[in-house]
Amino acid sequence: MKIGVLALQGAFVEHEKILNALGAEAVQVRLPTDLEGLDGLIIPGGESTTIGQLAATFGLIEPLRAFARSKPTWGTCAGMIFLAKDIGSDRQPLLGLMDVTVNRNAFGRQIDSFETDLDVPKLGDAPFHAVFIRAPLVTATGEGVETLASLPDGRIVAVEQGHLLATAFHPELTSDHRFHAYFLAQIRAGQKSSAGSA
Ligand code: GLN
Question: Could you give phi then psi for residue 112, rounded to 5 degrees?
Answer without folding.
Answer: -70, -20
